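Sharing a chain and its predicted structure for anyone who wants a worked example. Both blocks are below, sequence first, tokens second.
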Amino acid sequence: PPEPAAESVPADMPRVREDEPTAQALGYRHAASDVDQARFPRFQAGQNCANCNLYQPGADASWGGCPIFLGRLVNAAGWCNSWVPKV
């Protein structure tokens, strides 16, 4: 079996800020419950970074990596418009 991804995403990487341009463009929120559903109608209850196919679990269970936000951590409970169901 493959190695766990947790070791490849260090907990000391900076966290994505909700006010940065990419985060704003994609509607990223640290808490999926804060997503503006009028602006991002793709959002459905139950979707979050932890159950997104792009999410890479980190050393800290609450935060992980995402190729959309290279070099920064996203909250497992967060969401953005790039959400893709886990396969």
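Comments welcome. The chain has a mean pLDDT of 91.
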